[in-house]
Design a protein that fits this description.
The protein is mainly alpha-helical. The protein has 16 helices and no strands. Among the domains are: 33 residues; 185 residues, MetI-like (MetI-like fold). Helix content is 70%, strand content 0%.
């Protein structure tokens, strides 16, 4: 052991011995009552109060809606009840499930959202792969148009999409069949069916598909080209390479896109109100109404009970999405990280 190390060790032992001989009150005062400790405590306290206030502002509306959905009629006429119900009940949820056709709407919405989400996931994955890995004429221009679809409000295209599916005709086939006497009308109305949404999903033109294509393109640009080159040298074709190598590598990103697409289609009311004009399928937005007999005997509180019923409908609509998020939150985080748009 050299002299420097021995001197440092002896100095530390001497300081420690002197500190231990100091009275406990003086040691506590020197350790905790100083400007550095005061600044740290003040910063931690400020941060805690700030986050607590932000959490209150964000979470209080949700908590109040959840709480009111469990209130009974007696709670609404009781002036002492503010937030927590005195007589909690599940009658509102039971009424929504029984009289508002919840399970029928749940099944129809699930089928519609699942088909659209699967179609959008694979179509956007294929389009994003083409933009990322292939060089062709007008590549940048076409991708700029894809980005442009994220900017244009969908209400701008509302009338044109409605007329297109109200008088649907592909390449004049319907007009030809009408001229031949096969069908009575020269066009076909696809309104009040799921077909318009399926067509938009399978063609990559549905809601938020521009964003999904952008995410997939950014993800595929991060995959090394050497993987594809090695596959081509081994005799694999373009589609074989795509399905056997690229798709297995992009499972995380595809799950992310699927969940985004499923959730947006689940809560969509723009396209459903546009294409379902009269007798369309019974979907979850249709259950948002007051069940029969819920306000009977509570005339003075009928407005609050109606609001509680709508809150219960909203919670029943969100429960499947919450369950889906609990199982897929890891994929969402990993997918966004690997897409290259973080930070």
């Amino acid at each position: 052991m050299d002299n420097t190390t021995r001197i440092v060790k002896e100095s530390k032992n001497k300081i420690r011995a002197e500190f231990e001989r100091t009275p406990l009150l003086d040691r506590l005062r020197s350790k905790f009552i100083n400007m550095y400790t005061v600044q740290r405590v003040a910063w931690y306290l400020f941060r805690f109060l700030f986050l607590l206030g932000i959490s209150y502002v964000i979470l209080f509306p949700f908590f109040s809606k959840i709480s009111s959905s469990f209130m009974s009629g007696e709670d609404f006429v009781d002036v002492t009840v503010r937030l927590l119900p005195k007589n909690p009940t599940l009658a509102t949820y039971a009424g929504v499930i029984k009289y508002n056709g919840y399970f029928e709407a749940l099944f129809n919405t699930f089928v519609l959202s699942l088909v659209c989400a699967v179609a959008q996931t694979f179509i956007c994955c294929l389009i994003g792969y083409g933009f990322a890995k292939f060089k062709f004429k007008f590549n940048k221009l076409l991708f700029a148009l894809v980005i442009f679809t994220m900017v244009v409000p969908h209400s701008t295209l509302q009338l044109s999409m409605f007329m297109e599916f109200r008088f649907f005709d592909v390449l004049g086939i319907c007009k030809l069949l009408n001229a031949m006497g096969v069908i009575e009308e020269a066009t076909i109305s696809l309104l009040n069916t799921n077909i318009p949404l399926y067509i938009l999903s399978f063609t990559g033109l549905a809601y938020k598909n521009g964003l999904f294509i952008f995410l997939m393109r950014q993800f595929f640009r991060g995959i090394p080209d050497e993987l594809e080159e090695s596959a081509y040298l081994d005799g694999s074709g373009v589609f074989s390479t795509y399905f056997r190598i690229i798709l297995p590598l992009s499972v995380t990103m595809m799950v992310t896109v699927f969940m985004f697409s499923f959730c947006w289609q689940w809560t969509d009311n723009f396209y459903t109100n546009l294409f379902y004009t009269s007798a369309g399928p019974y979907l979850l937005p249709d259950i948002v109404k007051v069940p029969k007999g819920l306000t009977d005997g509570y005339t003075t509180a009928s407005t609050y009970i109606s609001a509680a019923a709508r809150n219960a409908c909203g919670i029943l609509i969100l429960i499947p999405l919450i369950i889906l998020y609990l199982f897929g939150q890891r994929y969402i985080v990993e997918g966004i990280e690997r897409s290259g748009i973080t930070g």
